[in-house]
Fold this sequence. Notes:
Layout: H1 12-24, H2 29-36, H3 40-52, E1 56-59, E2 62-65, E3 73-77, E4 80-86, H4 92-103, H5 109-121, E5 126-127, E6 131-140, E7 143-153, E8 161-168, H6 177-191, E9 196-202, H7 206-214, E10 218-229, E11 232-242
Parallel strand pairs: 8-9
Antiparallel strand pairs: 1-2, 3-4, 4-6, 5-6, 6-7, 7-8, 9-11, 10-11
Helix pairs in contact: 1-3, 4-5
Amino acid sequence: xxxxxxxxxxxxxxxxxxxxxxxxxxxxxxxxxxxxxxxxxxxxxxxxxxxxxxxxxxxxxxxxxxxxxxxxxxxxxxxxxxxxxxxxxxxxxxxxxxxxxxxxxxxxxxxxxxxxxxxxxxxxxxxxxxxxxxxxxxxxxxxxxxxxxxxxxxxxxxxxxxxxxxxxxxxxxxxxxxxxxxxxxxxxxxxxxxxxxxxxxxxxxxxxxxxxxxxxxxxxxxxxxxxxxxxxxxxxxxxxxxx
Length: 243
């Protein structure tokens, strides 16, 4: 995903199937075939080739885009058991809820815009010729309680960079969830060829700035009065890390 090479499919119908699945997140094969008006035998053939090439996978009766992101990991801290894993389309509402709950603190504007975007598109993970978007989640008893999100435009001049947001519900902070999420997200970004990862937060979010600096992020720039929160102007702090 750190590459700007166009996706190659070898057949127009194959490309149409991939783009339909990518755009919708997870689709019923029969619904996709009917919507795309591809004959059943041709559809099965193209899906088989897309699976063979590692573009699509079938799980729980749905077709999904393959984003190789590793396995689920289990952790225990202070008697709290949680898991960190690649997000699935079914996590969409849980992630939106978690982001919006964190955004209510009025200290994470960029994350709020991410929630608006995925809520509008109704697709969680993206990988096309214009952009890549990846999520990992932290779960407790299968409920999403934290996330890390990476977004990268697939254009040559920015192909080495990605933007990141990370957050954990307030009641689950202090157990290392944020650190594990951040590490997982950066590990994935490095494996995909990204060289720099960015994040922007309001200067009023002291906890987030301190958290990132503790994990070797550096402040690169400050935009004065960039945000207006509760009637007050607040600077934007722009941080980055080299991978």
